[in-house]
Write a structure and sequence with these properties.
single chain, alpha+beta, Metal Binding Protein, Guanine Nucleotide Exchange Factor, Chain A, six-stranded antiparallel beta sheet, 6 strands, about 10% helix, globular, NAC domain-containing protein, DNA-binding
Amino acid sequence: MGSESSVKLPPGFYFSPTDEELVLHFLYSKASLPNHPNIIPQLHLSQHHPCQLYGKALSSGNQHYFFTEEKENRSTEHGYWKEIGVTKPINKWGIKKYFVFNLGEGSETSWVMEEYHVSEFGSHDESWSKWVLCKVYEKKMSQQGASCCYSDDDNESEVSWLDQVFMSLDDHDFDQTSLHN
C-alpha cells in the first residue's frame, strides 16, 4: 500500500511550501494520480508518536510532512490527535484543519498537526480524496524548559500554546481583527 521511508533533503535545501502549494502540487497530485512519484512519504498516523516522525516523514527544520488516509485512526499507543475546531479554506481547492496531540490521560502537548484536505469543486466542507497531507511540528513554548515527548509536567503560562497557535495565524486567515501583539 504505502512506503514508510523518508526523503532526506541535501544540505542547504529547505522544504517550505505555502498552503496552496501543499494542496495543489502535492495533495491534489496524490489524490488524482495515486502512483505519481512524490517526495512526501505515506505514513500510518496511528503508528507514530510525533517524536517518532524524525527520519520517517519528510522533515524540514522542525516541520514534518506526510500523507495518511483521511479515515486513518488518530490514536497512538501514547495519545491521540484532537481536532481543535479551526478550519481554514485554502483558496477554492482545499481546507486545513488543526489538531493538537494529547497524551493518553488527555493532557495537551505542544505538538500541532495541520491536516490538508482537497475539496470538491470549491466546497470547503467536503473532501473527494481518501488522502490528507499532514504537517506536524512542535510549538515552542515561550517559557523556559524544553518539552519532552512523554512528559507529564504542566507548563503553565499566561498564554496557552493553543492561544499562541491562534495568534500565529495571519490576519487574512480570518475576517476579524488581528490577534498579534
